[in-house]
Structures are given as structure tokens and as C-alpha cells.
UniProtKB/TrEMBL annotation:
Residues 163-177, 213-222 have a biased composition (Polar residues). Residues 1-33, 81-234 are annotated as: Disordered. Residues 15-33, 98-112 have a biased composition (Low complexity). Residues 245-335, 436-484 form a coiled coil. Keywords: Coiled coil. This is SWI5-dependent HO expression protein 3.
């Protein structure tokens, strides 16, 4: 009974993290991974919270496992009661009584030979009734027993004759005082005396009855006085018969009181058995609930461990990426410095080249100016030559015309001479051909000179355009080279 009350009075531990739980369960957590970066405070705080949560979960699991083991031990130490009794009993008390705990501890203490001592009926009834109960409980007192004591569960012979061993009725081990079979009454053998030769117990307490009958019932339950013991002797007189009848009535009243006490104790034991049955079922439910909670907490712990492994894996990946990024940054810094030095060298070269190109440009510009003036003078000379030649050709044409007119006049004058005219005609044709050939040769030579001069001028113009483009490109390069060193001087 005390074990079940203890199990019902155990409070449930709420699931919340505590500093003590985290300190006690700190050794069970895996050590801090050196791969975590100190530059990531969010990940570090998350890992710390996950570790505290896991430590709290493990502490709660261990505490509940200890509670479950304690409940199982209490169930094993609890007395075995029959389950077929009535289920009418008052609700169990939330806290155990100290006397019950002491009684149960005394009853369940193993003897030196290794066997558990059997509990007496007084211990069982006292643990069921409690220290505050006023029920009379039978107590075995071997030193103070007398022959007039009423033996528990054994019928007495109140005959007028002298009691003899041959006429004494033997007690039935399967029947009690009320002639009810033992098989139909639970715990009857534990409440009754098992043997004939055992010493009968004496009732040490009186029945607590409220009202005016309390004194009379307590007087009836007290042991008989020595005067009553003397009245049980054999007597053939009418007075002896009256004493025997009074003794019989007193014995019947005592038997009835004992029967009522036994029935009350039986009802109390039935209530206690029902209470223990309910408490056992409650303990089974509590054990099942704790087992389910333990499984849930184990699942939570495994899930948290998986999450922690994933977080650690991500942290390791982040660390590897950070190392790779650092190496890449170092390589890029080295390459940028190298490229910066190369660019500075190229800038110096380009500066020297630009100064050289400026000098060349000045030289080319001066030479181009000289070439332009020379080309202009050549063109002027060519134009003057062309004008002169045209004038000459015009003079020749005029001369030819004059000659033709003269020939016409001569032809008109010499109509009679066909041969002279044919000759003149042939001469004219020849002269024409010669003049045309001469004109053609001169024109071809002039054309070739003009074409060569035009090609040279075109080539000079192309060269000038190319030089102007190169000069513009050099100026752009110089301008960009002058602008680049100013922002690039800060990282170096």
C-alpha cells in the first residue's frame, strides 16, 4: 500500500532546461568541435543551445528511467492480493503513512538465511487499517494467553460437562467461526489461525461504537474476569446452570463481536485490495506512459543528434569553403599585385613609347608639312605645264587650222592637179597621224604622270590618316595611363 501511494505522489518533472541539469549532464555531451569558426557567432550560439537542449533531454530521460525503475521495484515489493474482490474502496491517500512504511520495511526485510519472513495477520490488518483506525485488531500474545481466550477462527465448546479431549470438536481448516467456507472468503486463512495447536490470540482493543453502546461493547470485548473463569467449572446445581448460561451468552456476544470485527476487517481488506488493484493499474498506465515518453524523448534526442551532425557537417563544409576562399583570395591578391607591377611596367613602357611617338609625330608632322608644300609646288608646276602645253596645243591647232586653210586654198587653187591633191591629202593624213600620235604619246605620258602623282597623293593622304589615328590612339593610351595610377596607388 505504501509503495502505491509513493508512486502516486511522485510529481511529473516538466520539460524545461535548467542550469543544474546542464551541469550534471555536461560530461555526456561530445566535446566542442575545433572546426567551428569563431567568426560565426550565430552558428556557435545555435550549437550551444542545441547542446544544452540535448543535455536537458538526456537528464530528463535518465530521471524518468530512474522513476520507472523505482516504480517497477515498488510493484515487485508490493503485496500480492487477489483480484476477484469487490472494487468498492475509498480513494487512496496521496502520501504514505510513516507507520505503514516502517511496517512494510519490517515485513519485507529478508532474514539472514535468505528467505523473506511471512507477515502476520496483525501486520497486514494494521497496514491496511492505518494507525488512526479504531478497529480492534487481533494480536498474538503467547505470554498472556489463558484457557478462556477465544481462538480466532476456531469454534469453542461451552457445554455444561467437563471439557475433555475426546469430546472437543476439531476445528475445520476450511471453515471459520461463522461457518463460511474459506474458499469463498478472501484472506480468510491470513486472518484466521492456521493450526489447532497454535496459541489463540487475544483482542487487545475494543470496538469503537458511537453513542451509548460504546461502553457496553468495549466491556464485552474485554477478556473474561477470573470470576467468569471459575463459573466454567462443572456444577450440577441450578446456580451453576445459570452461570453456564451467562457464560455461554457472553461467549456468543464475544463471538458475534469477533464476527463483526472480522467482517469489518474483511470489508476493509477488500477495499484495500481494490485500492491496490486500481493503484497497480494506475502504475501500469504510468509505466506505459513513461515508456512512451521515454521513447519520444529518445526519438527527440536522436533527431537532435542528427540535426547536430548536420550542423557540424555544414560547419565543416563552411570551414573548408572558407579555407578555399582564403587560398583563392591569397592567390588573387598575389596575381593582382603581379598584374599591378606588370601594369606599372607597361605604363612606364607606354609612357616612354608615347614620348617617342610624340617625337616621331612631330617629325612626321614637319615632314608631312614639307611633303604637302612640295606636293603643292609639284601640282602648281604640273598645272603650269598643263597650261603651257594646252597653249602650245592651241597654237598647234591654230597652226594646223591655218595650214588646213592654206591647203584648202591650195586645193581650191590647184583643182586641176589631182595628184598634187592626193599627195597633199596623203601628207595631211600622215601629218595628222603623226600629230595624233605625238599628241597621244604626250597625253599618255601626262596621264601617267597625273595618275602617279594622284596615287602618290592618295598614298600620302592614307599615311597621314593612319598617322593621325595612331596619334589619337597614343593620346588615348596616354590619357588612360595618366588616369589609372591615381586609383591603383591606394591598394599598393
Amino acid at each position: 500500500m505504501h509503495s502505491t501511494s509513493l508512486s502516486l505522489s511522485i510529481p511529473r518533472i516538466p520539460f524545461r532546461p535548467s542550469s543544474a541539469a546542464s551541469h550534471r549532464s555536461a560530461p555526456s555531451i561530445r566535446a566542442r568541435s575545433p572546426s567551428l569558426l569563431p567568426d560565426d557567432p550565430v552558428l556557435y550560439c545555435r550549437l550551444v543551445s542545441i547542446r544544452h537542449h540535448m543535455s536537458t533531454l538526456k537528464h530528463s530521460i535518465r530521471h524518468q528511467q530512474a522513476q520507472l525503475q523505482n516504480l517497477e521495484n515498488l510493484l515487485q515489493l508490493a503485496p500480492r492480493m487477489p483480484m476477484s474482490l469487490n472494487n468498492t474502496s475509498p480513494p487512496p491517500s496521496p502520501l504514505p503513512d510513516p507507520s505503514d512504511i516502517a511496517t512494510t520495511a519490517t515485513a519485507t526485510t529478508p532474514t539472514p538465511n535468505g528467505k523473506i519472513r511471512r507477515r502476520s495477520s496483525f501486520d497486514i490488518l494494521h497496514s491496511l487499517a492505518g494507525p488512526d483506525s479504531n478497529l480492534p485488531l487481533p494480536r498474538r500474545e503467547p505470554g498472556s494467553l489463558s484457557q478462556d481466550g477465544i481462538r480466532e477462527g476456531v469454534p469453542m465448546d461451552f457445554g455444561a460437562g467437563a471439557p475433555s479431549q475426546s469430546y472437543k470438536r476439531q476445528s475445520s481448516p476450511t471453515r471459520t467461526l461463522s461457518r463460511i467456507p474459506v474458499s469463498s472468503v478472501g484472506n480468510a486463512r491470513a486472518l484466521a489461525d492456521d493450526g489447532i495447536h497454535t496459541t489463540p490470540p487475544r483482542y487487545s482493543q475494543g470496538l469503537a461504537v458511537p453513542g451509548a453502546t460504546e461502553t457496553s461493547h468495549s466491556n464485552m470485548l474485554q477478556p473474561p474476569s477470573p470470576s467468569v473463569e471459575g463459573s466454567r467449572r462443572l456444577s450440577l446445581t441450578p446456580g451453576g446452570t445459570t452461570k453456564v448460561l451467562a457464560d455461554l451468552q457472553t461467549g456468543v456476544i464475544n463471538a458475534r463481536n469477533a464476527l463483526e470485527n472480522t467482517k469489518a476487517q474483511l470489508r476493509l481488506s477488500q477495499r484495500s485490495v481494490a485500492q491496490l488493484t486500481r493503484q497497480t493499474e494506475d502504475l501500469k498506465e504510468v509505466r506505459e506512459r513513461l515508456r512512451l515518453e521515454n521513447e519520444g524523448l529518445n526519438n527527440v534526442v536522436s533527431r537532435k543528434e542528427r540535426l547536430l551532425q548536420e550542423v557540424l557537417e555544414r560547419a565543416r563544409k563552411a570551414e573548408a569553403e572558407a579555407v578555399a576562399l582564403k587560398a583563392q583570395l591569397k592567390a588573387e591578391t598575389t596575381s593582382s599585385k603581379k598584374s599591378l607591377r606588370e601594369m606599372e611596367a607597361a605604363l612606364a613602357e607606354s609612357t616612354a613609347l608615347s614620348s617617342k611617338s610624340e617625337r616621331e609625330y612631330i617629325t612626321l608632322r614637319d615632314s608631312l608639312k614639307g611633303m604637302k608644300s612640295a606636293w603643292r609646288a609639284d601640282v602648281d608646276n604640273l598645272r603650269e605645264d598643263m597650261r603651257k602645253r594646252e597653249e602650245r596645243w592651241r597654237d598647234e591647232v591654230e597652226m594646223t587650222g591655218k595650214k588646213y586653210a592654206k591647203l584648202v586654198e591650195e586645193s581650191k587653187a590647184r583643182k586641176a592637179g589631182v595628184q598634187s591633191v592626193g599627195q597633199l591629202r596623203e601628207e595631211d593624213v600622215r601629218i595628222r597621224r603623226e600629230v595624233e600620235d605625238e599628241f597621244r604619246e604626250e597625253i599618255r605620258a601626262l596621264k601617267e604622270r597625273v595618275q602617279s602623282s594622284s596615287a602618290a597623293s592618295e598614298k600620302a593622304e592614307k599615311t597621314a590618316e593612319h598617322l593621325a589615328g595612331e596619334l589619337a590612339r597614343l593620346r588615348r593610351l596616354m590619357r588612360s595611363a595618366d588616369q589609372q595610377p591615381a586609383p591603383e596607388s591606394s591598394p599598393t
